[in-house]
Amino acid sequence: MPDLDVPLWLQIAHGLTLLLAVAALVATWLPLLRQTAWWIRIFDFPRLQIVGVLVVVLATGILLQWHRPADNTYWGPVVLLALAAAIVYQTLRIMPYTRLVRKQVGDSTLKDERRRLSLTMMNVLQYNKQGQKALQVLQQADSDLIMAVETDLWWLEQLKPLEQTHPYTCHEPLDNTYGLLFFSRLPLHGCEVKYLLDDDVPSIHTLVELPDGKTYVRVYGLHPKPPAPAEAKTSTKRDAELLLVGKAIDQKDEPTIVFGDMNDVAWSHTSELFRRISGLLDPRVGRGLLPTFHAEYALMRWPLDHVFVSPHFKVDDMERLPYVGSDHFPIYIRLSYEPHDKEEQEENAEQADVEDHQEAIEKIREGFEEEDEEEQEETSRQRTGN
What we know:
Blueprint: H1 8-29, H2 38-41, H3 47-63, H4 75-94, E1 116-123, H5 131-141, E2 145-149, H6 153-159, E3 168-169, E4 180-184, E5 188-194, E6 203-209, E7 216-222, H7 236-250, E8 256-261, H8 269-278, E9 305-309, E10 313-320, E11 331-337, H9 342-346, H10 354-384
Parallel strand pairs: 1-2, 7-8
Antiparallel strand pairs: 1-11, 2-4, 3-4, 5-6, 6-7, 8-9, 10-11
Helix pairs in contact: 1-3, 1-4, 3-4, 7-8, 7-10
């Protein structure tokens, strides 16, 4: 029964604070289950926002004197300790993507334009009709490589003027929000559009020739489906697509860039596993979050659009570009090819162990199995007319 000596408003404050504490703790610890269900994986994304809730709840709990046990019950101090532990854990997960740590990819020291390569990644939001604004931002950024995703035929017409300055193209416009357009100022060699897992989700695979005429960079452009009720019930195929590329990179020793809207945050287990498997580096580490989604809600943002690079590269510039009417901000990076510092940079790479490789293989296998099951279900529906 409620304590009649305690004012009703204070009882409500205790109840609401405890409810928020439980919710924030569940949101913190659920992702540790490593399950692929979308309603679990979704808590990988708002770690910064969860920290904010945890801090507010911890401060409120202290004001409500939870640290002083009453009637020989110790639930208050236990909850406060759990909140403090969750804050430390979440902060440690986010910390690498702040300016408080050493940069994983060093700043450029070589001023050689023939070895420079700039990229812009833009999720236009297929139903966004501010095509001229998007085109203007891309033209002002003037990067060597441009990938625009969620692009259909209408968007191809809007961005077609880019072909005047970027004559090398590899397009796959689709009306399912997974179309992509790829423009390059630099020569492309063997550019292919591949469907790695989903038969309706394309990706770009190409070699890019740098201005020096003798350096070739392997480039992958990706946009896997997110774990969300309307897209994919699990993160299985998203994870598998990223790791499939990671395993391919692991077998090569060449300048490599992977970029795109990964529909995953940099601090997720899968993103970290991908970096260990591929040996690629994250330019965000030590430079800041640069959150790209959601462009219209300042308090609900996290980094979904990424660039991962091999140790052959250093960073000359990296920034988030202006709003273009989409739910994503575009992201821009200018890289410098500096192979003479490759060994030094490799020391910053996260190393994969046997368990990492086994986990990657298992996740890839599960991704193909899930795709086969979905194809069988679709065939069955077509046969029954449902």
